[in-house]
Write a structure and sequence with these properties.
9 helices, 28% strand, six-stranded parallel sheet, seven-stranded mixed sheet, alpha/beta
């Protein structure tokens, strides 16, 4: 046992406090695999945890970081041995179980998958939970039977992590991608990822009509609230929208009209508790189909001691693409 560096969130009568400090390995929670963490990432949920803007953290003290990549240090789980390269997303890590913003983590082996072949730990965290969620969203649209010949697909929150990866994946699959963003100055960046059209998010931010003009066959939405309501109202007959985020709010001020008059489907996408078979498929496809050059173009890297100040930036919509947090 020993000490290691970790970002730690604590709470007392005066409120939440977060700091980078030494953490005792003996205080790690139960698990059958101990991982030497090399990389993590900054997701929207991490920003909420770091700032306390929403009750993401449900036990204190907490090491935030909802995903990580690293090397197994010790294991009693049959699927993992010392030296294995592994990845973790979700399962309450960084919320109810000590997370990835630390040099070490101890978790249940059932939560881990092996690092996909052809992908480095840094690339895996460039994908992170945001990119993994984007792939789950694409897979949900495919399971619904939607293909590029049905018409365009809209991606909201396009310059964020989920949106950036979704655009790259959908464009590579042959879709005509409409990227909705509040940062039209990022048009060149989005077109570089594969977007065919740029839509100012202001067109989707107001109250939605029960039904609007049919504009797209499918959608990937990480925004929620009025944006999702507008996307649904403009989805073509028999289309579907994969909903995976709530950057604008948890409400959905819509009507039943898109569902009962156009047969539109709303597909819920959860990355936290997704079964292992789905995780393995998603990560395999990410390793095979996500262009590494495009992934690099949407990624920046920061050290662990900079992640606390980056938290408010992602909530303010100032982060483009993905941020890798280098732990070691």
């Amino acid at each position: 046992m020993g000490m290691f560096k970790a970002v730690v969130v604590e709470k007392d009568e005066s409120g939440q406090k977060v700091a980078l400090r030494a953490f005792d390995e003996s205080e790690l929670m139960d698990g059958d695999v101990t991982v030497r963490v090399t990389h993590s990432t900054l997701n929207y949920k991490d920003g909420l945890a770091l700032t306390g803007k929403a009750p993401v953290v449900r036990r204190f003290p907490m090491i935030p970081g909802i995903d990580f990549a690293g090397t197994v240090e010790s294991s009693t789980h049959p699927d993992f041995k010392s030296g294995d390269a592994v990845v973790l997303n979700g399962w309450g890590v960084g919320e109810t179980h000590l997370g990835g913003y630390a040099e070490k983590a101890r978790v249940k082996g059932d939560w881990l998958i092996k690092l996909p072949e052809g992908m480095t730990a840094s690339q895996a965290m460039a994908v992170g939970t945001a990119g993994y969620t984007a792939m789950l969203s694409v897979m949900a649209l495919e399971r619904h039977g939607l293909t590029p010949d049905r018409g365009p697909v809209i991606v909201t929150g396009a310059s964020g992590g989920v949106g950036s990866v979704a655009i790259a994946l959908l464009a590579r699959a042959g879709w005509h991608v409409i990227a909705s963003t509040g940062r039209v100055q990022e048009s060149d960046y989005l077109k570089g990822l594969g977007a065919a059209e740029i839509l100012d998010r202001a067109e989707l931010s107001g109250p939605a009509r029960p039904l609007g003009k049919e504009r797209w066959a499918a959608g990937v939405d990480s925004v929620g609230s009025h944006t999702l309501a507008n996307v649904l109202s403009m989805t073509r007959y028999g289309g579907a929208v994969a909903a995976c985020g709530l950057a604008a709010g948890m409400d959905l001020p819509t009507s039943v009209a898109p569902f009962i008059l156009r047969g539109v489907s709303l597909l819920g996408v959860d990355s936290v508790m997704a079964p292992k078979s789905l995780r393995l498929e998603a990560w395999k496809r990410l390793a095979q189909h996500l262009d590494h050059a495009k992934l690099a173009s949407m990624t920046s890297t920061i050290p662990l001691d900079k992640v606390i100040e980056a938290g408010p930036e992602i909530l303010a919509g100032k982060v483009r693409g993905r941020i890798v947090v280098e732990i070691a």
